[in-house]
Structures are given as structure tokens and as C-alpha cells.
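Record pair follows.
FIRST:
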Amino acid sequence: MKTLRSDLQTGRTLIDYFFYWEKQQPDKVYLRQPIGDHYQDFTWSEVGRLARTLATYLNSLGLPPRSHIGLLSRNCAHWIIADLAILLSGHVSVPFYPTLNPDQLRTLLDHSDCRLLFVGKLDHWPVIRAGIPDGLPCVAFPESVAPGLAPEEGLTRWEEILGRFEPMTDNPLPHPEDLFTIIYTSGTSGNPKGVMMDYKAMVSAIDHTIPMMRHDLPDPRFFSYLPLCHIAERSLTEANSMITGGTVYFSESLERFPANLVAARPTHFLAVPRIWSKFQQNILARVSQQKLDQLLQIPIVSGLVKRSIRQSLGLNDARLILTGAAPMPVSLIRWFRKLGIVIQEAYGMTENLGAISMMPPDEIRDGTVGKPYGGVEVKIDPATGEVLTRCEWTMRGYYREPEMTAAVLDRDGWLHTGDAGELDADGYLAITGRVKDQFKTTKGQYVAPAPIEHRFADNNYVEQICIAGQELPQPIALIVLSETGLRTDKSLVTQSLEETLNRLNPRLHTYERVKKAVIVKEPWTTDNNLMTPSLKIRRKSIESRYRPHLQPWFEKEETVIWESDL
């Protein structure tokens, strides 16, 4: 792999990096878009030509400088091309989650002052279409990746633009103070907020995180499947691919995800805890834990088993393996480590480009999210236990929300994360939950749900869990079963959960002990609004949904309760 010139090592924007690789390796494949059994490849020069042509079109519209341009699509090559076009035309990109319902989309389009919307891969376009205000110009991605948009009137076709306009010929560079993007949060706690980031913030974050991001790897490959509108995916995949000159592979669909991942063999890979849990369940569906433990004790066989599992996942070439966006149970991290898959936990939030800390690969300290990056200050509020951070890449603020901004960003530049945490003597940061997630039982004691939920990670029958109990004497566990649990006899699942509670409760304070485990019928998904697009549970929505049943469940005699039996 070619290396960047010394004058591009620091202090440059993503556009600088793109221009560099476009010139150095014009014929190398940058984006690989799966379409069925084959790939549509885009070289660096082709991506540049397409982005510049779209930028010419955007400039022809006579929009005010620094206009906000929306992006609504699942991940695909055209997402990154459109994002580049927005930046090259001097406008501000505003990506949205493709899982928004019409009301949510209309609210965010109005709030963000979008002047145009790129529309691409979507599951329910006829439904989502109702959320787009009349008169808002829309550009549809090509039919090859977004066939559902093909017959829609009122959409400007991607192909039509390419046939009518020529690529812009200059290479405009933004001013560091210019607004780069507005990123709407996933709305874990309330309505999504528009985080404003300027170019200098992204530059600073890049410069300070490069040492940890394994830019030294030859032929870097990235696999894009988590929402690109989320800061973690946008930073790891879009930003780092432009910095390293690497290749981005995409996942075509949920069904094609395993095959697409194996084909990509990424060198850099990020998965949220729920994905890692799914991987674990799929492995254990093929070989029991007992058999796996036996095989791993045999020296030669152990190596073959580990290699086979890594290859089956597509992670045999991965050298930077990350988890983030939600806390990862230590037991799950250790389980994968036994297979030779060393997962580094990263911590951050949209308000600081997802870059607060990362676990050092050679100095792992389980139970923490590693050490802060260079340039990041972290302290713990002595009164509340809240984690406060300060760095050069903290957001400008929330778009059109000065009061919300003031509530989290104080006069001294400290960002109040809302996470409760601890710092040890060596600078390792541990996240112990959300400050506002703590609830008070009727006995008057405060309970932090996250640490209790993590203790269920060893039970392979559990896929999702929410500890509730604000109006109860003791907490109860609301549980969604994994695919393994759904296939297992109910009596065995009940027995397993009873055993988990018997092991768990003696380790907890008396007021924290889980009184009941309730197995709910319906999974928590983005479709029923019980999970965010970044695959974190919406705790308040779940508690609200089941609140009328909590007291009756608590009063039942059995310890494990099946909602389907009621």
C-alpha cells in the first residue's frame, strides 16, 4: 500500500485524503457494491467522477451556500458517493436513519432545514414517502441498488443527472471552520438531536486516533453494514477508508450478510454487542459449548478450530476488531478471545465523533473501555459519578437547540456524557451505566440496571434483556429469547434462567436482587420502536410498554414467567 506524503499526515480534511488517493491510485477499486452474486466495482477515479458530476448538479440548483442536504438510504456505494458530492459542492451533509417512520422523518427534515434529499435503499419506500414534505427535491439512487424507487414520479433520477451534467473540474477545499455535517443521534433518550460537527473537529479526531486505527496494514479492507449515518460506522468505514486508501465492501441485505462478510475478509471490523452475541449463538448452534471446550484443549486441533471459526465468520484477516455503541459483557469478550478473536472495546458518543477511548491491544483490562485517546481529557463528576470529557473535536452544539446544548456542554468545554463511570489509577475508564437509567424501587433504593443485565450474558438462551422495577420492591428481568432459546424446550429454558438467578443474586446487594424473569413474546426491534437504529434498547419505551403488567408479574408465585402463557 502506498503511504501518504508527510504533508498529508496531519491537519487535512477527508476531502484532502480523497483527492490524494484519487490521484495516487485512480484504477484501484475503492467501493464494492454486491448485487446478487456479483459486485459492481467503483475505482477511486470513478467515484471522483461520479461525485463531481453530482456536485455540478447540486451547484446548478442555485441553493444558498452551506445548504443542508439530506441522505436517506441503507448502506451502499452510492451513499458514500452522494456524501462526497455534497461536500464537494460546498454544502452540509445530513444523514438520516433509513428505519425512520414517516412522522419521524418529516420532523427531522423540517428541523434540519434540508433543501434536498438523496433517497436510496429502503425497505418500505411507499410508507416512508409520506414523511417527505411536498416540494422537497429528491434524487433517487440508481435502480440497481434501489429498484423500488424506479417508477416513482417526482424523483430526479441518478442516471438522468449523469447523462445531463459534466464533472466539476476544480478541487474545492473547505475552510476548517465550515460546518461539515449534522448527525442526528439515534434517540435512545428522547427525540434525536442534530449534532453539529465542523471540518476542524474531524481533522483533530483523525490526527489523534490514527495511532490506534492500524493504518499500517497492507491492503486495508472495510465492511460496511451498520448504519452509515451513525458516527461509529461513518468514522471507522467512511473516514478511515479515505485516510488509508482502502476498499469498502457493503452488505446487500440481512440474508446476504454472512456471505458478503466472508467475501470481504475485512482487515478492520466493528460490530455492536448484539452482533457479537448473534455470532456466538450461530457458532454454538453448530458445536456445543462442551464439545468446543474439549476441542480447544487439544493443541493442534485447537488451532485448526480457531482458524476454521474465523474463516467461517470472514474475520481471518481482521487485525483491528472493535465493539462499541453499547456496553459489551466481559464474559462475551473473553469467550471470543479464547477463539483467537481479540475484540477491543471503543467508547464515544456522537457529540465527540465517537472518539473518547479504546482498549489497548497489548494491555487489555477487562471491565473497562480502555484508555482515553491522546488529546482527550476525562474526569468523573464527584457528585453524580457522571463521565465528563473535553477535547478539540467536541461538537459545536445541537442544531437549533441552544438550551439542550447548554445542558450538556458547560462553559469550560466539558461535555456531560450522561454515562456513569469510574477511572482507575492507570487511566482506564469503566462505564457502569447511564446516570438517568438508574431507578428507585419502592424500598427507596437506587438500582443501576446495566451491570445486572451484563450478568445474563453467559446464558445463551437470552438475546435481549431489560431490568425494570421503578414501581416494585425488587427488580424484575424482561427477556427476549435468542434463536437457541426459541428452539429449546420451555422447561429447560425455565430451569436455565432459574439457575442464572440463583448464581446472580447472591453477588448483588439485597435491593438489587432480581425477583422474577419474564420471557416476553415479541422481540424488541427498530420496527416496533423498542430498539434504536444502532441496536440499543429503548429502555423508557420498553418500561412504558410493560408497566401495566409489572406488578401482576411480580406477585406471581413462579420465578420464571412466560408471557405467552398468560
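SECOND:
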Amino acid sequence: MQSPAIEAMFARFGPRYRYYVSLTAMLGTVAMVLSATMINVAVPVIMGAFGVGQDKVHWLSTGFIAAMTVTMLLNDWCVRAFGMRATYIGAMVIFAAGAIMGGLSPTIDIMIVSRLLQGAGAGIVQPLAMIIMFQVFPVEQRGRAMGLFGLGVVVAPTVGPALGGILLDSFNWHYVFYMAVPVALVGIMLSLIFIPGKERAGPLPSFDVAGLVLIALCIFSFLTGLSNGQREGWQTPIISVYFSVAAISGVAFIFWELMTKNPIMEIRVFYNRKFIIAALVGMLLGAGLFGSIYIIPLFVQTIQGYSPTRSGLLMVPGGIIMMISFPIAGWLSDKLPHYQMILFGMCIFGLSSILMMQAHTDTPFWIFAVWIMFGRVGLASVMPTLTVAAVSTLKPEQLSQGSGAINFTRQLGGAIGINLIALGLDQRTAMFSDAFLNLRTPDNETVSHMMMQLGHMLGQLGWPLEKTPAGALYLIGRSLYSQASMMAFRDVFLLIGLVYFAMMIPVVFLRDSRRAEAGRPQLRPKPQPQSSPQPQSRTG
């Protein structure tokens, strides 16, 4: 049943209003997904501009996703307290302010704060778009609405890296941030026309402040401990403090949510065996999706010497394949058991990661693109099926809370995945570098031969004779470091593939009993309309 404010909008604009307001809502979502993916092609450039390593720069992606994960829990309360229009405008203002701050950042720390602001705005807008679309489309057209929403969400990461690369090559990294500002301003202007305001005045609804603080403290303490552990040392007191705070606040969050009358997240949905398995798969799905978008542009720019534009274009074919695969996977998920679709997708993405382990400095563009396309077919097979599989055994009153929890775990998995990938790259690169440097001795015939050749080349280029040994040694060191970095990337790709294969074992337990499978066609339509509209419907 539509609210009076939405009925008034229909009376004013006619039946086309649902498309006007959907476009407005989707504009905010697409802008924020673009911002989340465009930054990945700029990571190597920003590393050079600020002189930082993987342990620091990954926060540009990790911080965005972590902040978005936390603020998604605010959406429902903000809508009830301030209305859809004010919530949308406020989130877009926060997002635009973060974009401007990022473009003007004089240090990497300020840039990371700007990404946290952008993520905070994105976390509120993304579920708001689904809420609006579910309110303006009738039940029989909600499939069309979700198709429209899914298309927008998939198109953005397809063009985001390519657009970011073009901006980098044509201008500089500042414009990767500034690009989001005009889109946010257009969204704000359209929202003043098409998004309904607050329907009635009244006191602010109750809000679980303690729950929000505890979950935010848990997430950011854990991620900070992971990112600083390699640099500070895993046994140092400060790292122990980070992990202790994360563990204590995480346990306190669970107990608080079970006791409070207005939980920010319904913990009891995790009592269901199938649901908790689906939540774990969702975390891995987020890690694979966001992690691959992060690591692939980094690999081809640092190892293969791609320009930002070329690295962005590498991601486009995979995005197109994912767009094509989504409706096919959705149709197949109606015909096949959920666990089979998820098993297929996990296997295909794992194989894609194993194939990428073969990448080297001369891997052709289209070979790498085909590997990515292969993996995107797997992700498309899992994504439309996972939420339905997760909530299929929940009680009707738990459906919206369950879909919100699945969205939360998927985003959290993305933040943790990028953090672990950056950590793994640092550790494996350091290990291989140490191993190679131990071989760089005068007694090594290969090293001696290379130094003679490089010294001869440097002499022909006009280097002073007394400086050629040092120059040759430096070039050998750089070559060994590049080789170590390439082998570290290979190990990370291998680890991602093995983890996906290992997670296929618990996926088998998502299998329904024969009785449940027989009744599935009658039961499945229930969760779908409610699986996405209010991912955080229990906030407040």
C-alpha cells in the first residue's frame, strides 16, 4: 500500500512518476558505486604521489566499504526520523563533501578520512534506492524494478574503472574524486522534485546508539589491527590492543542486540543453520567481488605496466558478461536447487582465480580479460540466488531482517577481503624479496654475468666507470623486486581460488530436504519482494 505522499506524487506526475523517482534514486546509487570502483585504478598512482605502500593505501577501498557497511544500519531509522527526501539529500551532501575533501587532500591520511565520509553517505543511499523502488512499483512489477536496480548496480562497476583510467591519463588523480560531485548535485536537485518528504511530524523514533557504536568499534579496530600488524609487528602491544578491542566490542554487540528491545541488527536470524552458512558464503562473495576489483588493476599496472585507462578497460568485458549472466542466472535459480547454483558459481570463480595465477609480465590483454569474464559468470550465478537461499527457511517476520544481515555480511566480507589481500601481498613480496636477495652475491654466476652485461650497457650510455657496478646492482635489485612482487600476486590469486573451493563444502549443507524441495515453488515467491527493499529494517 502506497503512502499518501507517494500517491500525491503519482497524481502530479502520472504513471511515469515511478520511473522518474527510480532514476533519481538510482543516480545516487550509481554515483557511489562508480566512486567505489574508480579509485582502484588510481591506487598505484596515489602510492607514488604520497610515497605509501599497500599497508596504507588499501584503506582507500577498505575504509569506503567499512564505512558503508556500518551506515547501512542507519538507513531505516533515518527514513523514519527525517523522511526519504531529507535522508537522500543528507547522504548525498556527505558523499559530495567527502569527494571534494579527497580531491583536495594534501596527505594520505586526510584522503582516507574523505573516503570514510564517502562510504558513510553510500551506505545510507544504496538501501534507500531499493526502498523507494519497492514503494512505487506494484507487486507484479517488482521483478522489473529489481532488474532495473540490478542493471544499474552492475553497470557502474563495469564502466567505473575505465572512466577512472581515462580521468587519470587525461588529467590527474584529483579528478577521480571530483567526478562524483556533479552527479551528487544533480541527484540532490532531482530529489527536491521527485522524492517525497516526511509525511508527518513527531518525536524521533528510538535508535540503538550503543549497538551502532559497538559494531563500528569492532569493525574498525579489527581492520586497523590487520592493516598495521605487518608494519608494527604482530606481537606488539598496540596490535594486541586493536584485536582485543575488536573481540570485546564484537561479543558485547552480540549480547546487547539480544537484550535490547530495538536492535540495530536481528541476531536471532543467525540461529538458523542454513542462514549462517549463507552468511559465510556472502562474506566470501563480497571478498571475491571487491577483492578482485581491487587486485586486478593493481597487478596489471605494477607488473605489466598498463596505463590506468588500459587497466580500466580490462575490467569492461567481465562487467558486460556479468550483465548478460544476471538474468540467465536468475532464471536458472528458479529452475534448479539453490545450492547447485551457488556451488557452480563458487567453482567457476575459484577456477578463474587459479587461471589468473598463471599471469606474468607478458600475459596478453584478451587472455586476462577472458579469465576475468569466466570469474564474473561465477559471481553472477551466486549473487541472485544467495539471499533467497538464506531467507528461505526464516519465519515471515524475519525476512527483511535476514536480507539486511546478508547484505551486511557481504559488505563486511568485501572490507576484510581487500585488507587481507593487501596484507598477503606485502608479506609474500617481502618473503620472496628476502629469498632472492640472498642469492645476489658475487659467488652466484648468474648474478655476476648479469652485472657484467648491465655494467657494459651502462658504460655505453655514458655512466662513469666507477659507478657502473652500483648501477648494475641497483637494476638487478629492482628486477628481483619486480619478480618477487609478481610471485606474490600469483600466491594471492592461488589462495583466493583455494578458499572458494574450500567453501564449497559448507555450501552442500544449503541443500533442502526432499519435502522442502517439493514445496519450494510455492514458498519461494514470498521472500523475493522483501529480500532487498529494507536491508536494515530493524534499525531503531
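COMMENT: The chain has 23 helices and no strands.
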